[in-house]
Amino acid sequence: MNEYINLDEKNIEEEHICCAIGDPKHQEGVDKKKEWIKTKLRDGHVFRKLNARGKIFIEYEPIETAWVPINGKNYIYIYCLWVAGSFKGKGIGKELLEYAIEDAKKKKMSGVCTLVSQKKKPFIGDKKFFEHYGFKVVDTINDYELMALQFDDKEIPKFKDSARKMEIDSQDFTIYYSNECPYVEYEVKELSDYAKEKGIKLNFIKIDSLEKAKNAPCVFNNWANFYKGKFVSNTILNANAFEKLIK
Q1: How far apart are the C-alpha atoms of 34 and 39, rounded to whole Å?
Q2: Which domains does the chain have, with CATH numbers?
Q3: CA–CA separation, 156 vs 75, rounded Å?
Q4: Using CA of residue 157, residue 148, residue 216, residue 35, what is the dihedral sign?
């Protein structure tokens, strides 16, 4: 019988948040992620993890307050469902997803939705996994797809029009990011230092409010790269990855 823990105000300081476990360079990002979770708990944010040392968790909240450029009513949005390493293939992902679905039903929600892509991308859900549980594509931007499991025939969630732009005015390499992910703080610092050393113009725009998240100019989960005004990818970059990308 697998044992799970839901983070709350009482245990969040003592519990790890799965990502970046034991890596000192990401401690600032972990601290900021925990602070972000604390502010979101009052919105109904859920971070549920296996009681083990590993990357095994699901994270979700009501779509109305979720930091994504998606409109909807009475849906739960899944930010991330991650089962890594030796914990794969043991039914844990199934148990985590089923918990979220049952939680949504208990709360009289209209359904559950999440972001996937036609081709597998980092930090984006596995389309085939969600299809297995009855999720269907309800909206698309390029090869990114919004999938939903509907409980009734009421309004389904949709990407906001602002997200469909997938472009910005600046021609400089520009990165949108938020503290939804504990990896971002270190990478922002590393990229800032790299850009300064190389004399490269690099812009960072922090998504630090619900309003900014809802009006992001692209598909956004926690990180987005733009170059010459166009959306490039959602991949979190370090200095080496950035150098390869601009070449």
Answers
A1: 9
A2: 4-161 (3.40.630.30), 163-246 (3.40.30.10)
A3: 8
A4: positive
pLDDT digit string, tens, across residues 207-220: 999 999 999 999 99
Name residue 81's beta-bridge partners: 58
| Tens-place pLDDT, residues 156-194 | 999 999 999 999 999 999 999 999 999 999 999 999 999
Alpha carbon distance 89, 58 (integer Å): 16
Q: Structure tokens of 30?
A: 């972990």
Residue 247 CB-density burial (10 A; 0-12 exposed, 13-18 middle, 19+ buried):
exposed
Q: Is the pLDDT at 22 greater than 80, yes or no?
A: no
63 or 244, which is more confident?
63
Cβ burial, residue 223 (10 Å; 0-12/13-18/19+): buried
Nearest residue to 110 (alpha-carbon basis) of 59, 149, 69, 68: 149
